[in-house]
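Most newcomers find our protein records easier to grasp once they have seen one. Each record describes a single protein and holds just a pair of labelled lines. A learned vocabulary of local backbone shapes supplies the integers on the structure line. Nothing more is needed to start thinking about how sequence determines fold. The record below serves as our worked example for the rest of this section.
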Amino acid sequence: MQSSLIKAQRTAFVQSARPTRRPVRVMASTGFYGLSAKTLEGEAFSFDSFKGKVVVITNVACACGLTNSNYTQLVQLYDKYKDQGLEVVAFPCNQFGRQESGSPDQIRKFVDTKYGVKFQMMEKVDVNGPSTHPVWQYLKGACAGCDGDVDWNFRAKFIVDKNGNVVARSAADPAAIEPKIKELLAA
């Protein structure tokens, strides 16, 4: 009897100690095009501007071991397919190894100088936990296989088709998602 009581108390404690997710502030009926975020420069940005385009959204960091390969490949993909309708959106995140500790100005200078980034850079956000940005809450619940916490910098690339449907989530390098991007651009 006592062990059942202890087990029940432990279960209640563990459940109360779990971080709760903030509810998604975007109505399900508005979908992907109803999302918005701030740019790295602090300006409001509506995802409505992505209508008719294929979009890749990922979390990034300037001081990660994956930074060079991922930024290089993201820039190559964007440059190769932007005229066909590809958009890349990068959200800096400091939740993994504190590898994105810079200010917006420092991040902008780094990506512009080192990689020549021309795609959309957004504000620094949380992609997991109780302060998860609404865009990331939406993305992680938008398709079969999209759910679950992000496990590291550059390890969540969400692919959105021309109709605003989140069709895939990939942890692979950007070059590995090129066939899916080509398929969606051709559709």
Q: What stands out?
A: The CA atoms of residues 150 and 156 lie 6 Å apart. The chain is about 30% helix and 15% strand.
